[in-house]
Amino acid sequence: MAVLVTGGAGYIGSHTAVALHDAGRQVVVLDDLSNSSPAAVDALRSLTRPDLPFVEADAADVDSVGRTLADHRVDEVVHFAAFKSVSGSISDPEGYHRNNVGCTAGVVAAMRAHGVSRLVFSSSCTVYGEPNHVPVTEASPIGATNPYGATKIACEELLAAEADVGGLDVLLLRYFNPVGSHPSGDLGEDPQGVPDNLVPYLMQVAVGRQERLAVFGGDYDTPDGSAIRDYLHVMDLAEGHVAALNALADGDGPTGCTAVNLGTGTGYSVLDVVAAASRVIGQPVPHEVVGRRAGDIERIWADPALAIDLLGWRATRSLDEMLVDHWRWQQRHPNGYEA
Ligand code: NAD
Ligand code: WQD
């Protein structure tokens, strides 16, 4: 039997594919390469097996997904395929809805048609919007602050409804802020164009691809005035998916649809991250505090208790380890995979 990883050529999907392979599973990757490249698939194969099955297809295409499930005798699915840029979603809300909800609907329809019932879904802490209390638990109020977040809420609702009527068992994993790379330095985050996210931007400053980091907001009600997030190592996150699939396959594991936070439980400010990165890199990262970015929230971090109880998973890697590994990837691949 095998596990299908949709969006498996992307950042989190490729690291998860490696973790699943290392845990002894047969992995099949499906991706349309809309935000990734054949070189990422090559890197994934060199860390797993040279003949790792890769299907280039749209996850919204029920026939392609169904054929993949049948051809590879798939009995569990991890569904990453989606567009993920908040700014992209503001310029193209319909396109984001069509792709993200369409992919989830397509994957579920194919699973139903082929009798596959175990699904792990990539959700996001963005579903909590601006929390009125931290840390956030899975029972904290839900509300989107941008169209991307709205697509994640719509997918969660679709999956909950499907679990109610369709016999699907789903874990909705709400990731906090993944950073870092595989320790080899040969698999990593390769954003197209100018990065939106903090650590990829900061690393591009450190290799000279960007001049200086703009720190968005120095007037938040936080100890140093910059915003706070829960950063977690992408390998911890990848291992969280292995734990989630193991829990679903366990006869005593969760049934129906359950949301689980995947975060460390610790918040760091933007300036904390800049200081840690400067230490790890061995030279100051040029930065400048500017105005707040529209739509940003002040602070969020996870209560990770449910993941510990239900999945037996907790993040173990420190902020320094995240930055050391991300920096190794950036140094070995200053211009990403294709360079
Ligand atoms: P990514 O863009 O690197 O990976 C997503 C992959 O999905 C890409 O390889 C892309 O080509 C593929 N894809 C997109 N639409 C597709 C389609 N219609 N058919 C097939 N493949 C398609 O993003 P990522 O950071 O690895 O994120 C993976 C998942 O995790 C996404 O669902 C994202 O929303 C979610 N997520 C990401 C973060 C984050 O900060 N990176 C945080 C929370 C949740
Ligand atoms: C982190 C902090 C920025 C860039 C986004 C999505 C969220 C989730 C994770 C998918 C913030 C600050 C950033 C820069 C900065 N993704 N920053 N200068 O905004 O927490 O979350 O990615 O689900 O949905 O919204 O992550 O990395 O963009 O920002 O000062 O150049 O760094 O303002 O405080 P964010 P991020």
List the helices and strands and how they pair.
Layout: E1 2-6, H1 11-22, E2 27-31, H2 38-47, E3 54-56, H3 62-71, E4 74-79, H4 86-91, H5 93-113, E5 118-124, H6 147-166, E6 169-175, E7 177-179, H7 198-206, E8 213-216, E9 228-229, E10 231-233, H8 234-249, E11 257-262, E12 268-269, H9 270-281, E13 287-290, H10 305-311, H11 319-332
Parallel strand pairs: 1-2, 1-4, 2-3, 4-5, 5-6, 6-11, 7-10, 8-13
Antiparallel strand pairs: 9-12
The chain binds nicotinamide-adenine-dinucleotide and UDP-4-deoxy-4-formamido-beta-L-arabinopyranose.
Write a structural description.
The protein is of the alpha/beta class. The protein has a domain at 2-178 and 232-263 and 303-313: Rossmann fold (3-Layer(aba) Sandwich), CATH 3.40.50.720. The protein has helices at residues 11-22, 38-47, 62-71, 86-91, 93-113, 147-166, 198-206, 234-249, 270-281, 305-311, 319-332, and strands at residues 2-6, 27-31, 54-56, 74-79, 118-124, 169-175, 177-179, 213-216, 228-229, 231-233, 257-262, 268-269, 287-290. The strands form four sheets. Strands 3-2-1-4-5-6-11 form a seven-stranded parallel β-sheet, sandwiched between helices. Strands 7-10 form a two-stranded parallel ribbon. α1 (11-22) packs across α8, α3 packs parallel to α5 and α7 (198-206) packs across α11. It starts with a strand and ends in a 7-residue tail after the last helix. The site of nicotinamide-adenine-dinucleotide has 28 residues, from α1, α5, β5 and β7.
